[in-house]
Amino acid sequence: MSVSAIVMLIVAVVIVWGGLVGAVVQLRRHPELPEDDAAPTRPAA
Amino acid sequence: MSSPSREQWGSRSGFLFAAIGSAVGLGNIWRFPAVAYENGGGAFLLPYLVALLTAGIPLLVLEYSIGHKFRKSPPAAFRRLSRPTEALGWWQAAICFVIAAYYAVIIAWAVRYIGYSFGEQWGKDANGFFFGNFLQAAEKPGLMSSYVDGVLWPLIAVWVVVLVILALGIRNGIEKANKFFIPLLVVFFAILVVRALTLDGAARGLDGLFRPDWSALGNGSVWVAAYGQIFFSLSIGFGIMITYASYLRKRSDLTGSAMVAGFANSGFEILAGIGVFATLGFMAAAQGVGVDEVVSSGIGLAFVAFPTVISQMPMGTLFGVLFFTSLVLAGLTSLISIVEVVIAAVQDRTGLGRLPATLGVGGAIALVSIAVFPTDSGIYVLDAADHFINQYGIALAALIVLIAVGWLLRRLPVFQKHANETSAIPLGRWWLICLGIVTPLVLGWMMIDSLRAEFAENYEGYPTQFLLWAGWGVAAAALLVAVLLSLLPWRSADSETALEAGTDTGPAARDAQDAREKEKN
Which residue of A has its CA nearest to B264? Predict the structure, then answer.
């Protein structure tokens, strides 16, 4: 494999799979709010 | 009748698995690798990521918001958005009807090929075996004249499995099936990729896929290809995500869910690209040719190139079983979501229960599928219907939805606010720009490109008369049926009256009422 292909393979994996891990971590940090219509909605961060 | 409480996902992960299962389909495995290869290799990553962030994920959020806000399938959700747009929802349901009918057949082929993998029964001529012995395809496209038992039986089995899962409902059927199938798919495909990477020539294949051709970035068609790949691979534009999001809990994080589903879909595509090109590298090395001579996509890649290469490798049977089982799993989870759109649309319209709706609607799709596709002309009808319903069904409907919601009704800010109420990542002005300007422009360009190609020469060189009914006719019929269905008066006048009066106590009615009040203000 050429160096440029190896670099792009690594970049693709890091960005896309890293993006997935980041998105999952971000979602897990914000558990679903209780299913109570009276509960206040989360303010936009 | 007042709307009964709507079924909900059992958990957030259940919804995510279902959404990912829907997005990850055959296109991830057999379309992405070739598209990336032909459009700049490693350099394609840039337009691909731009497309994911400016069209894919924003569209996912919009569809989640429409489904979540109105808690309805596409026809009823669009009707609540604005009465005339109901036809758009029926259009999406009709598109799903068509796609489900042929998509099931490809899964049936893959089921049969799991069996053929034992002993590599396709022999030395995988092409002749697939089209001749297995499909018994006619020489030329035309009307169906004979049945093919070898396709019929696995197809019936696929439909039985899909309808049983759908009849069990959202939580017990779709959610449980996806929570089982998706991890299994990832494990199977990961083993396959590891095996592919250990083959001689794998590095040559990966070099072909990832070596960047930066000059490709100056070519507009490469950017359109990137948006097209994101668009067709994410299961957006035909109402699936609206339907799935309608079963979400009230306070679900829509934007966060879209980020996870979008990146998971792309993550699987990258994995598939690595697996497919490592295998093609082995094939090129074995045949003593360049990688460029063995690259293929779609049906040719799965049912001709892969069987050929499986016959050439040690432990080919195991590789074949892993590959075709992965195709079946990826396809099944997508097919379930496609059929669910039609079932939910009819349920919302008629108030039918889950079982009768599944048997009636799913059964009708299965009957069409079984009547048309396991025949000598099945592959030609499938190919033409797939091309035309994709271009002049899914993509055209998505363009018109964006124009209607973004420009005619000017409701994008309503959905932006709705998503922001329960999501941790706020949608800013960029979201409005992506959906109001960037995506419609790219979809419009795709449409013009595609129409130009259509009139320059017949798709695949098929006879005009055949394309008129199997291609243009199918796409036009989906639109016509949608318009007719939207013109029919709603039989359940009670719920309509309740909705109009704002007396329906369901969350969707309240939201709809809120929207109307805001509109008046």
Answer: A20
> CA B5, CA A27: separation in Å to the nearest integer?
27
Query: What would the DSSP string read from start to end of B65-88?
Result: HHHHHHTS-HHHHHHHH-GGGHHH
- The tally of domains found in chain B comes to 1
B313-351 tens-digit pLDDT? 988 999 999 999 999 999 999 999 999 999 999 999 999
Q: How many Cβ atoms from other residues are within 10 Å of residue B403's Cβ?
A: 15
Q: What is the pTM of this model?
A: 0.91
Strand partners, B375: B147
* CATH code assigned at B440: 1.20.1740.10
Most A CBs within 10 A among B253, B269, B431, hence the mutation to make, goes to B253
Interchain CB contact of A14 with B (< 8 Å): no
What residue has token string 């799991």?
A: B114
Contacts B507 to A, Cβ<8 Å: 37
What is the enclosing helix (H) or strand (E) of B412? helix B412-422
A 10 A CB-CB count for B494 gives 14
CB A16 within 8 A of CB B267: yes
Contact A25/B at CB under 8 A: no
Contact: A5, B212; criterion CB under 8 Å? yes
Is B504 among the domain residues?
no
Which residue among B12, B257, B420 places its CB closest to the CB of A44? B420
Model ipTM value: 0.86
B379 lies in some domain: yes
Domain range for B186: 12-488
Q: Nearest-5° angle of CA B74, CA B80, CA B81?
A: 85
Distance CA B258, CA B262 (A): 6
Using alpha carbons only, give the angle B485, B489, B493 rounded to the nearest 5 degrees.
130
Partners of B147 in the β-ladder: B375
In a domain, B507, yes or no: no
When CB atoms are compared, the residue of A5, A16, A34 closest to B267 is A16
Average pLDDT over residues B470-479: 96
In a domain, B360, yes or no: yes
* Minimal CA separation from A36 to chain B, in Å: 9
DSSP B79: H
Residue B42: list chain A partners with CB under 8 A: 4-5, 7-9, 11-12
Place of tokens 């879209």: B258
Question: Do B253 and A30 count as a contact with CB atoms less than 8 A apart?
Answer: yes
Instruction: Name the DSSP letter for residue A41.
Output: P
